[in-house]
Amino acid sequence: MRTPQRGRGGGGGGTGCGGRGRGRGGTKKAKGLESESEGGIKGGSKVLVAPHRHAGVFIAKSKRDALATKNLVPGELVYNEKRIFAQKEDRSTVEYRIWNHHRSKLAAAINIGVDNIWIKPGLKVLYLGASSGYTVSHVSDIVGPEGCVYAVEHSHICGKDLMNMAEKRENVVPIIEDARHPAKYRMLVGMVDIIFSDVNQPDQATIMALNASYFLKSGGHFMTSINAKGIDSTSSAETVYQKEVEKLQMEDLRATELLVLDTWEGDHACIFGGYRLPRKQKS
């Protein structure tokens, strides 16, 4: 497993999507963008949007770089986010949404320099602890019309915002259920390529493992966010992270990378890894 890193700061079978009758759908650098202020990018300034090394993610280059995703639903805002508009050679417009790494653990991991987020266009993602859908909306942008995001949220208050967001995003399936009981939504979720978990519970490793046993393909990948104090307030954050890695390992969830997220208050980290990965062959 890649050794823990600390953030550098700065910058920026189920019904599924098809069952809901929803549509399916290497971008070149775009110059001369009209932008709205966010993360150092000022309205009306000339900026450059370039593809990030993670497919489906982009970098808006200005005095301070910012992460962005291509808006799956042009003209629609999710949380009053800032946008950048680019005109292509055929004079059509491409709209990007700024992705604030201070509000999204996944964006923070990308900003730090995670090796691989495993989320790509066309893949299916199960997102546990979707909340109001902030990060879910950007994952929706990344996987695009050919992909799907099954978003599970227990809170009915947050779930209302999640469902409103999903009304405009045809690749998002909102599920208002407790992630501890995947049997309750097994008829809604097909097999997925990736599970992202942000449930912030002491038993979150068990929750991840249970959902993986239902939905995650062998050889698929996972990401789980860790709030050390929310799991064990009496131990050091490093001890909690290691224990979580060991718990996951016991469930065939092999950690390959751990990143400490210094852009978040308190002791937070993300663990990335694979599920039922083939054992390395002896030479």
TrEMBL record:
One Pfam family recorded for the sequence: Fibrillarin
Protein's GO biological process: box C/D sno(s)RNA 3'-end processing
Biased composition (Basic residues): 21-30
Protein name in UniProt: Fibrillarin
SMART domains attached to this UniProt entry: Fibrillarin
Annotated region (Disordered), positions in chain: 1-45
SUPFAM superfamilies hit by this protein: S-adenosyl-L-methionine-dependent methyltransferases
GO cellular component terms given for this protein: box C/D methylation guide snoRNP complex; small-subunit processome
Lineage of the species this protein comes from: Eukaryota, Viridiplantae, Streptophyta, Embryophyta, Tracheophyta
Record's keyword annotation contains rRNA processing: yes
Gly residues bias (residue ranges): 7-20
Family membership: Belongs to the methyltransferase superfamily. Fibrillarin family.
Superkingdom, taxonomy of origin: Eukaryota
Entry's localization field: Nucleus, Nucleolus
Species, as recorded: Capsella rubella
Keyword terms: Methyltransferase, Nucleus, Ribonucleoprotein, RNA-binding, rRNA processing, S-adenosyl-L-methionine, Transferase
Molecular function GO terms recorded: histone H2AQ104 methyltransferase activity; RNA binding; rRNA methyltransferase activity
